[in-house]
Every structure is written in structure tokens, then in C-alpha cells.
Amino acid sequence: MNPLDFLIPVAHAQAAGAAPAAPSMMSTLLFPIILIAIMYFLMIRPQMKRQKEHRAMLDKLSKGDEVITNGGIAGTVTEIGENFITVEIANGVQVRIQKGAIANVLPKGTLKAA
Fold first, then answer.
1. What distance, in Å, lies between the first and last C-alpha atoms of the chain?
2. What are the transmembrane regions (predicted)?
């Protein structure tokens, strides 16, 4: 008997018993597929829906609409261009902003009531 046998166990091959089966390819790929599906329905799809609604709101924008920007500035649309919109925020004070900066279209008369 070797003196190292007490410190390092000797590996003996087992004669009986089968080796554990490796997981199948289907079960290996199932978890990532389920994870991607969950991410799509919880994160990607709602964001795409919000973008579509925002784009539709910007397309329906017309002169005289009362809007609020992402920066919190409220005003009335006086001019609409291809990429920019002119918003009147006070009498004689007009600001030119990008179309994408419009956060919401307010109901008519909201600015007068405020």
C-alpha cells in the first residue's frame, strides 16, 4: 500500500451501473427559447406598440393643437415641418422643436384653463 493512498483516494472504475445520460438537445435549447419568448412579450412588444402609437399621434398633429414636450413645455402648434414643429409657448414667443420631442397632445382649452 502506497502512503499517498490515505491523502488522495484511489479512483476505481465501477463495474456496475450506467453512466448518467446527457441532456438531449431539445431540453438544452428549450430554456433559451422560452427566455427569449418571455423577453419579447414583456419588453420588446410593448415598446414597439408605444412607438407605433407615438408615430400615429405625430402624424395626426395639426396646426392649433395644444401639446406638451418631453421637457415639460406646453404650447400651441403654429407651424409643422417635415422634422421640426414650431410651438408658441406665450404670446409672441415661439420655439422650434423636433417632432419626436412632442410627448402628448392635450385636449383643446387645457392651456387656457391652466
1. 95
2. 25-44
H/E element, 25: helix 25-39
CA distances from 77 to 13, 56, 112 (A): 83, 17, 14
85: helix, coil or strand?
A: strand
Residues in the chain: 114
Helix (H) or strand (E) holding 47: helix 45-59
What is this structure's pTM? 0.66
Residue 79 phi/psi, 5-degree rounding, is: -150, 140
Closest CA to 105 of 70, 44, 57, 59: 57
3-state secondary structure of 22: coil
Contact 103, 69 (CB under 8 A): yes
